Amino acid sequence: MSLINALKWRYATKKMTGRVVPQENVDQIVEAAHLAPTSSGLQPFKVIVVSNADLKAKIAPIANNQSQIIDGSHLLIFAAWDNYTEERIRSVFANANTERGLPASTTADYENMLVGAYTNKTAEENFHHAAKQAYIGFGIALAEAALLGVDATPMEGFNPAQLDELLGLNELGLRSTTILALGFRDASADWLVNLKKVRTPKEQFVIEYK
Question: pLDDT tens, 17-32?
């Protein structure tokens, strides 16, 4: 299936069957997020994979009791860094240089520029920037799920502070940004499954300067 066809096939699934998504598919979806581009390659977010039924039951009321959390197979939680720090920035480049067999001095000037830029911003400003990077990975994971024929429901309808507390994300320097429920559609119970996919007409959506 091409990406365009996969995106035409997918929709924000409202009811899931409870059927388990094969682990290799979950791994591929997570790897897609892992390979996503991010600003300066910093990857300022983590993907938390939840399949434990008891934990999903605790998350459900935090997310308005959306049924996909319980009926879905896996829940992916995208959590961004709460701040850009010098230690975090330099750690990313140290790892990259080691993996590439390059001396630390290779990226020293660029690191110094980034450290200066980010440490002059507030933690909240930096979190919002990191959250945007998390959304890039989130979108690519959503697309990969569609390519694999796995239904996925993106969710922002949850209380981030409560989810962060439940998962202990504050202690990890993370804040939750969005949730992606993975599973398989229950076509017999989902009111949305057979409705035509509708988007803004392309001539209104695209602005061209030629």
Answer: 999 999 999 999 999 9
pLDDT digits (tens, 9 = 90+) for 97-142: 999 999 999 999 999 999 999 999 999 999 999 999 999 999 999 9
Identify the CA nearest to 174 among candidates 119, 207, 133: 133
Q: How far is CA 129 from CA 87, 119, 133, in A?
A: 17, 13, 7
Distance CA 153, CA 165 (A): 23
- The three-class DSSP label of residue 16 is strand
Residue (of 190, 92, 78, 85) closest to 134 by Cα position: 78
pTM of the model: 0.95
d(Cα 94, Cα 174) in Å, to the nearest integer? 21
CA dist., res. 154 & res. 109, Å (int): 39
Helix (H, G, I), strand (E, B) or coil at 22: coil
Q: Tell me the average pLDDT of the chain.
A: 97
Spans in the chain with pLDDT lower than 70: none
Among 76, 70, 69, 81, CA closest to 30: 76
Contacts 24+ apart (CB under 8 A), 115-119: 115/86, 115/89, 115/90, 118/84, 118/85, 118/89, 119/84, 119/85, 119/86
DSSP string, 146-206: HHTT-EEEEE--S-HHHHHHHHTTGGGTEEEEEEEEEE-B-TTT-TTTTSPP----HHHH-
With beta carbons less than 8 A apart as the criterion, state whether 155 and 14 touch. Answer: no
